[in-house]
Each structure stands twice: as C-alpha cells, then as structure tokens.
Amino acid sequence: MSILVDQHTRLLVQGITGREGLFHATAMQAYGTNIVAGTTPGKGGQTVLETVPVFDTVAQAVRATGADTTVIYVPAPGAPDAILEAVDAGIGTIFCITEHIPVLDMLKVVAEVHAKGARLIGPNCPGATSPGKAKVGIIPGSIHKPGHVGLVSRSGTLTYEVVQALTDAGIGQSTCVGIGGDPIAGTSFTDVLQLFKDDPDTHAIVLMGEIGGGAEEAAAAYRAEHLPNVPMVAFIAGRTAPPGRRMGHAGAIISGSGGTAEGKIAALQAAGIRVADSPSQIPALLREAGLRAD
Amino acid sequence: MAGWAVPDDLTMLPQRPLWSLRYPEVPDQRSRGAGASVKLQEFAAKQLLVQAGLPVPAWSVATTAAEARTQAEGYLAAGADRVVIKAQVLVGGRGKAGGVKLAATADEAETVATAILGMDIKGITVRRVLIGAAADIVKEFYLAAVLDRTEQRVRIMGSAEGGVEIETVAETNPDAMVSVLAHPHLGLLDHQAREIAFAMGLGDRWKEAAAIAKGVFKAAIDNDADLVEINPLAIVRTVGPDGTVTESIQALDAKITLDDSALYRHPQLEQLRDLDEEDPVDVEARGLGLSFIRLEGTIGCMVNGAGLAMATMDLVKRAGGEPANFLDIGGGARSDKVAAAMRLILSDDSVRAILVNIFGGIARGDEVARGLIEARAQQTRDVPMVVRIVGTNADLAADILRESGAGIEAASSLDAAVERVVALAGVSA
User: Fold this and answer.
1) Is A226 among the catalytic positions?
2) Which chain B residues are within 8 Å of A240, Cβ to Cβ?
3) pLDDT in tens, A25-54
C-alpha cells in the first residue's frame, strides 16, 4: 500500500494544455500515472498526450472518466476557483501546485474543502509520489525507489534532496508527500502522519520541517501519542536564519521565540524523533532508529 | 486558559501564549523577497483605514522642515493646542529613538521637524514626517486583525490596555486581551464585534466600538492585509469652535502589512510600497522574480527552493562558514535569471566564494549552467565558485561546465560542495 496516490489513482490534470500542465502531465504519464482526463475551459474536445481527453469543465471530466484525484497547474488568479470546481465535482483528493495564491482566498477555500469532506494538498506544493505506482505533481520521478519509508515535507527541492539521499542509500519509499510552504495549507504534517499510521507498508517516517509556525511541534505531539514505536527522523531547515527574517516561503519566518529551529528540534527530540544536522545523515539515522533493510 | 474576557470563545483559542500570535506573519522590514508581505508606512496605513470607514484624526505628510512648519500652522490655527510630529519609518521603536515629538508653536514644529528629518533610526534615514493635531487622549486601547495560520482564520484581537507593547500585556495581563476568530465566509459577525467592544471595556460606547472592530476586519479583507493593527485606538476629547467638548474613538496609529501575492488585484496599493526604505538589491531581486536577502557573511549562495536554500545555509554555517545571502532562484529559472542572480551576489564586496546548489526538477541543470557561464564571462572580480547540480539534465550541465573552461569547480555531493566552498572562502579571505 501507500497513501494518497497509487496505481488505482484516476488522475485529472486541471490546466493540462498550459506550459506547466502539459510538461508535468507528460512526466507523470511517463512515470506510469494513470491520467484519465485534463481540463482547460474552451479546449474541450481536444486530446493531449495521444490518449488523454480534454474537457471544458471538471464536472464533465468526472462524469466521463470517473477521475477521483486532481492536480492543479492553473495560474494563481484562477487557482482558488479551480480547487472549488474540483470540490464541487466530487473529487476527493486535490493537489494544488500553484504558488502565490492570495492568503485570504485560501482561508475561504480551505474552509470549503473541509466542509465538503475533500482533501487538499497544498497550495504551493510539489505533490506526492508513491514510487513504482504513481507520481502526482512536479517531483522528479527518477529519484525514487519503492520501499517502506514515508516522507512528508514542507519544502520542494529539499524534499528531492532527501529522497535522493534515501534512494542512494538503498532505502525505498512508500509515499513522499510535499504539503507546501504557504501559511494556509489544506493538509498538515499531522494529517499526513495519520495516513502513514494507517498504512501497513510505511515502516518508518521522515519529516522535513522549516522554521516558522507550529506544525512541527504539533507533529511531534502526534508522534508521541500515536506513533511511539515507528522509527522517525526529522530535519529542520533554517537553523541559522537570522531572527525576523523571512526566507522566501511565506511560512518560513522566525519571530520572537515562536517557530524557531531550536524549539522545533527540542519538541521533536522530546517525542523520540532523531533530528539530522544534514540531509545526508538521514539514511543512517533511520537505520539507527530501527529501520530494517528492505 | 482561565480568566479570558470572553469565556464563550475559549474553544477557539489555541493552547499557546497569546503573544506568539501577533507577529507570526510579519517579517522584518528589510527582509522582503518575493512572496513576502509589504509593510506600509503609517500615513499610507491610515489612508486605508479611512477608506474602510474608520475614524482617523486629520494628518498630513511633510518632507521638509518648511513644509512641516506650514502644516503645523494650519493645525494650530484650527484650534490645536499642540501638534505631533512622527517619523515615517518602517522599523519599530521610533518613539524611543526620538522620532516622535510634540510642538506647541510653528517655530517649535520647524525645529522638531529639522531634527527628525534625516535622523537615522535603526539604519533607516527619515525622509518624511507625519503631522497632525496632538490628540487629547482620555484612554488608550489596542485593536488588530491578524492572520492566524494555525486556526486558518482572521483573528480580531482587542485590549483595554493600548499604547504599550501588546506582547507585554498578553504576557503579564492576559485578562486584558480579547480575541475572536472571524468566519471564513461570513466575516466578523455583529455579535463578535459586540463581544470585542464589551470586553475591551467600551460598553458605554459599544455601537461605536463594534463598528470600529468591523472596520478593522474590513480593512484587512479589502486590502488583502495579513495584519491591520491600531495601537493606540483611543477615546479622544475634542473641543469645538463653540466650546462644546465631544469624545470619540479614534485610530491614532496604524500598522498594515499586505500580502504580496494579492497585490496583482490591488494595483493602487503597489504605489504605497515605500521603495526608499528597501535595500536596492532587494528591489532589484524582486523585479527579477528572485527571493534575495543580504546577510553579513562571505559565502554567496545560489539555490533553487527556499527550504533547500535555508538548509544549504545551515550546512555552510555548520562547516564554519558564514552565508553572505539567502537566494532562492525559484523553479524553472532560465539562464538570464541565473546570470542576473549571480550579479546580485557579486555586487556584495564581502563575498569571497560562491556556492551554487541546484536540484533540477522544474529547473533544468543545463539552463543553470549556461547562466553561470554567462555570468562568469561578465564577472570583473575573480571569485571562486563551487557548483553542485543534480536532477533534470544534470549530466548535460556537467558537460557544459567542463567544456566552458570557466574554472568552475563541480562538486559531487552537497556536503562536499559546502566543505569546499568554506575552504575557498577561508583561503581567499
């Protein structure tokens, strides 16, 4: 098994005829992901990637193809509506790759997504890959190896760095999920930990955090209560970021004593999670924590 | 959690000290990059409060002492006892730094303005002052709307103790704070606004106070602000021309930060951004779509992705080096953008070595390599460069770098790259 995406995923790509959408749809399909449809308003009736039908609306795409998961490459001004269109069409799992969506839009969108019982990952996230089964989003497929480590991260390229390190060390992954770095996100670390907890194929977990906010502390508390015996390793980016400086991500801010790397590391360690000083240490720490060879 | 002013709201309050709520979204002014907040000057923030229907005493802005004098004459002639002259800078603590003064005559106003204009407050030169009639304050309060990312709501916070550091109030006297979460779709409801008004001790003026609470929320929503803060909000006594004394609630100071990502739909707000107070390098970086923050060290860093950029800086520091900057070139960076980013790094004379760490996903390694060579060709200073490119088209990138003869060192791993660049910075220092 795995979480969020697998070989049974019937994927819709919103914005499939755009530059980003088409580029990544091509890569996802090449990885083996089952892309059943795409949407771009006004381009219904076309076919892309030889076999993928394009629809004008998400509702049409769902009716015609039974799509159950969507990935959004729509530019920021239209992305909130794209998420809501997917929710209204009954899609249960929504990945939003788009960055720079206004925060106040996301307050409303996330409330609506939760009210309808759908799951939103992102925005401003790299997506998720269940190695050997499916990849949804923009994570390079080549860096993965199937296995039993679940990875959850607030970053994009830092996620790739760690996945590569795991793969190079011969450690495969069950699912790698990037939840995005925006201040308002649909899915939290804790949500993903809950999914990993219920996944029999995930034997160990890597959590990649950043300074700012309180999500890592919440994840530590969740681990202490619900996952005490699962080998778990974490890394926190931004240990040396000067206080009061915002390092690119809207979410990654240090202010006062809240959200600092020290506070997060202390909380993670107190919950029995090993914290790496460098991404390259993660494979060894996983083994030290009890991960057995595949 | 006992002792909160509005017990009904206890379920909505997070289990953490209130002071940690206030600034989570507000970055230091000098640190803006792409995707950050835009902090407004007081006079610009007051403009937005007025547009949201909030009561703000008349003010004007002067850039010279002569202008300040003329404006002061106007307020004094209209009946003001004194005028207040306030430095317009985006850093905190301007009062303590001597940037806020009262004046009783036009002469005094000119003298005070002369002293404040050109004053250095935490490294910022004062270019403008705000002038208005000094308020006759009966009592001060605090009121703010702030994005609460944990609760995923806009939080309205009020306190009967205004005009002081609100973090201190929240820590020492949490009973004095009231806080409600606005509904994501319905906004700040009437009863919530009333709760704020009564809990702030404004029961005898609750209609006026509730309208102000709704106005603060409206100012946040209308402008896509992640913080609208009025400190102090005050009951102010005014004497009319006929001698009648009236008291009303007025916003005497204002702090607003806007969500950069939403500026596209508020083109008029872009003009309120104060470019004078920004590091020119930051302004240039933003124009290029780069996220750049200058730091104190000697090792220039160019990375794609904010998380990886921070992690790279952490590793540099761990290896004994000091990063000269944070730079995220973003996804899909083309060669011209890479070259421009390299120029930004090299514009800092303290840079002794450069580390390039690119994990190609959307970004293609060969594009980055071409940009580096282009930048190398224009480079006037000989700064050693260590490059680590992995992921999409990394092999092609390695070929391009090797064949260029540009003397760029390639590193096989991130750890090795960091070790090497720290050594190079040490050697050439």
Assistant:
1) no
2) 313-314, 317-318, 323
3) 999 999 999 999 999 999 999 999 999 999
